[in-house]
């Protein structure tokens, strides 16, 4: 079974971004380590072909730290289902 990909926002320098990243790491390292993994939002934003190809057909969850919802918007732009 394919793992669910958890994408946290990057929110650098923002407390909610830090909380989003910490929550994602808690999920993939402790709570659901056999069922979830995380990938870096920056690779998706910069158009990295390897990560874009990897993400095709994957189930995804985003954890956004603010109302701008950058992680969710980026994945939708790539055609991912959330």
How would you characterize this protein structure?
Strand 1 (4-8), helix 1 (15-31) and strand 2 form a beta-alpha-beta unit. This protein has four helices and three strands; from the N terminus they run βαβααβα. A three-stranded parallel sheet has the order 2-1-3, sandwiched between helices. The mean pLDDT is 91. Helices cover 45% and strands 15% of the residues. The protein has one domain (4-77). The protein has 82 residues and is α/β, with parallel strands linked by helices. The relative contact order is 0.27.
In short:
This protein is of the alpha/beta class. Helices cover about 45% and strands about 15% of the residues. The model has no long low-confidence stretch (mean pLDDT about 90).
Topology:
Blueprint: E1 4-8, H1 15-31, E2 36-38, H2 41-45, H3 49-55, E3 60-63, H4 70-77
Parallel strand pairs: 1-2, 1-3
- What's the tally of helices? 4
Q: Tell the overall outline.
A: globular
Q: What is the radius of gyration computed over CA atoms, rounded to a whole number of angstroms?
A: 12 Å
> How many beta strands in the DSSP annotation?
3
Query: Low-confidence parts, pLDDT < 50 over ≥5 residues?
Result: none
Percent strand equals 5-15%
Features:
3 strands, 4 helices, single chain, alpha/beta, 82 residues
